[in-house]
What we know:
The chain is α+β, with helices and mostly antiparallel strands.
Amino acid sequence: MADQADSLDQATGSDEELPSDKVADLVEYIVCGLVNNEDAVSLDVTDSEGSALIEVSCDEEDAGRIIGRKGRTIKAIRTLARALGSRVGTSVEVEVLG
Length: 98
């Protein structure tokens, strides 16, 4: 049974986790802790050569919570995402689409 799962993972390529996936997981965890409506949060990750763009979509009301006063919250999220990105070998940009 485990052999079938391994061969299925190899066929679909789902066992290969991109470095940006770890960063996206971190961003999602932080954002979901900030917003009122977690179900409306979605992340769109666009990978290119050595970099990734993470676009966070959420309710308009929650966009203000993610951005924070004078942009301090999103700046902190970007700092954490970039730190993890450099650790896993990719540069990262985080944008809020609201």
